[in-house]
Amino acid sequence: MSFTCDTKMRENEALVSSNGKYRFYVQPSGNLVIKENSRTMWSSLTANIEIFEAPYILSFSPLGELLLRDKNKFLIWHTVNGDSFKNTEKIEDIRKFSLILSDDGELYIEDNYHNMYWSSWPVRLYNQHIRYVEPMIYDISICKETIRNKYIYDLFSNPNIYNYYEDPDDSTTYVRKYYVNNLLPNESLLSIYHATLNVTDTEVVFYYKYKDKMHSKELASCSKNSNVKELKLEKNGLYLYCNDNTYKTIAMVPENQKYYRLSIEKRYKMDYPDLMIYNTKTKEFLWGLNPVKFLYSVVPNKTKYGEYNRIVTANTFTTFDRLISYNGGGNHVYMSNSHGLELSNSAYTEFKSLSLLDDNFYINDEIIIKNEKNMELSYDGINDKLIITNDADTLWELFGRKKCNKFISSDENCNTL
Question: Cα 389 vs. chain centroid, distance in angstroms?
Answer without folding.
Answer: 43
